[in-house]
Amino acid sequence: MALVNENYLKLPGSYLFSEIARRVNQFKKDNPEADIIRLGIGDVTRPLVPAVVEAMKTAVDEMGRAETFRGYGPEQGYDFLIQQIIENDYKPRGVTINMDEVFVSDGSKCDTANFQEILGLGNIIAVTDPVYPVYVDSNVMAGRSGIYNEKGQFDNIVYLPCTEANGMKPELPKTRVDMIYLCFPNNPTGMTMTKEELKQWVDYARENKSIILYDAAYEAFIQEAHIPRSIYEIEGAREVAVEFRSFSKTAGFTGNRCAFTVVPKEVMAYDGAGKAYSLNSLWLRRQTTKFNGVSYPVQAAAAAIYTEAGKQQVKETIQYYMENARIIREGLVEAGYKVFGGVNAPYIWLKTPDNMSSWDFFDKLIRVANVVGTPGAGFGASGEGYFRLTAFGTRENTVKALERIRTRM
Ligand code: PLP
Fold first, then answer.
1. 0.90 surpassed by pTM
2. Is 379 in the pocket of ligand 1 (CB under 6 A)?
């Protein structure tokens, strides 16, 4: 008799997006004429930039000729891409990363979900609340949690509330934790941390021999010069932090799939006797066993964002989204909402008026303004009373949606 992995049975159904779809469909059925605008999506809408398309086409042609055909590539990624990552994403920020510390992959979702595999099951994990659900669910599947309780949280996971009271910035855990998931710029709150704030986390991790799993998937949206783009800009971070980056939102690769994870050689985890093991070696072992690399045309396409033309084109796309973010943020402020994010991130996190629940606000927004967003409660208990709008829509829809919110809500 095959036994099931009972950890999977602890997971509640993935309720958020199916419930949104159900309510939108019902509304459409009842109001077939309504012109619905979706500002709830976390997916990009702008196409790949020309430099990326050209590079991908050239690479496909190479694959079609015997002289330039490539089979399996290195599991860690091609040197031509890793070199560009180091030269463009890290060197200009004063950060030294070595070639064998970058692992190219097909997404930050899988990397943030899989990385826990090389760490002990007895570790206590800490996540912010609200949170990108992948960090929690992947640890539940692995067996690092208790049951899903009546508060809508898992036992044995440390939740760090991010609320209006702390300006959406998590406070250091009161009890010892071993693995800390941080995401900045944050999904869903759109907030960032300063170097000084991030330094407290690095210091905590160094003191407690914990690991910080730092998700910087939205790094490209940072506009303010003083905000760190990488956790390695913080002194000591190379000893304790793993960083996840993605081309998904940076360059419209959500359907193309390319990302990378940085694992400095100094990051260690320990056995029961206190002996240290390099996570870089363990992650290499894991990837070479379970992963066969990202396709050559996709890596060639990713490398094209670091050419002069590619940089310029990608920057224009990001500015397009960030102008949407500005329109949403300023429109909401003008309409009297309390808002977070939207300055260095494509997400705007608003406090629902009159203590309305996230779902009540969702219903009112679609009914009155015909605009769809994402209820904050779907990201965790502390997201209740908040609501997420995204800047990934078209300009026309964004302007129209804000006009409706200002005049109708
Ligand atoms: N990390 C965060 C915080 C995200 O919001 C997302 C996607 O929405 C991802 C990672 C996934 O990125 P990828 O497309 O590289 O898997």
1. yes
2. no
